[in-house]
């Protein structure tokens, strides 16, 4: 179709005003907004907590210093992670598995 689609209701469902429509949003941010809104809408229903159960993960940040006696562990929850498509040495990472290995190295 040559006609633009009116997305006013979609924007409203995100909690955006007219000015937000002209702000660039990335896919990760859109996913976070969608998950937040779905969680809000499902509160108190049989589906309450579904988004968290389906999409939330947990990672541990671990730091161990070489020159001093210091170790730190911190657990963080996440809904998404940013994976590189190129490795530290500039090589192309050809799969999600390779990107995850690089992410956790």
Question: Any overview of this molecule?
Answer:
GO terms for molecular function: cysteine-type deubiquitinase activity. This is Peptidase C19 ubiquitin carboxyl-terminal hydrolase domain-containing protein. It holds the Pfam family UCH. Residues 2-71 form the Peptidase C19 ubiquitin carboxyl-terminal hydrolase domain. It comes from Strombidinopsis acuminata. The N and C termini lie far apart (47 Å). This protein is 36% helix and 15% strand. It has 4 helices and 2 strands, in the order H-H-H-E-E-H. A two-stranded antiparallel ribbon has the order 1-2. The protein is an alpha+beta fold. The chain folds into 2 domains: 1-55, no CATH class; 56-105, no CATH class. It has helices at residues 8-14, 27-42, 50-55, 96-104; strands at 57-64, 71-78.
Break the fold down into its secondary structure elements and pairings:
Elements: H1 8-14, H2 27-42, H3 50-55, E1 57-64, E2 71-78, H4 96-104
GO molecular function, one term: cysteine-type deubiquitinase activity
Organism: Strombidinopsis acuminata
GO cellular component, one term: nucleus
């Amino acid at each position: 179709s040559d006609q633009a689609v009116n997305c006013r209701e979609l924007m409203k469902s995100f909690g955006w005003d007219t000015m937000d429509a002209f702000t660039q949003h990335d896919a990760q941010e859109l996913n976070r907004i969608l998950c937040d809104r779905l969680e809000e809408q499902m509160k108190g229903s049989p589906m309450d907590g579904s988004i968290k159960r389906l999409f939330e993960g947990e990672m541990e940040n671990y730091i161990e210093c070489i020159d001093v006696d210091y170790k730190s562990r911190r657990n963080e929850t996440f809904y998404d992670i940013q994976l590189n498509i190129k490795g530290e040495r500039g090589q192309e990472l050809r799969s999600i598995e390779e990107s995850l290995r690089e992410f956790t190295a």
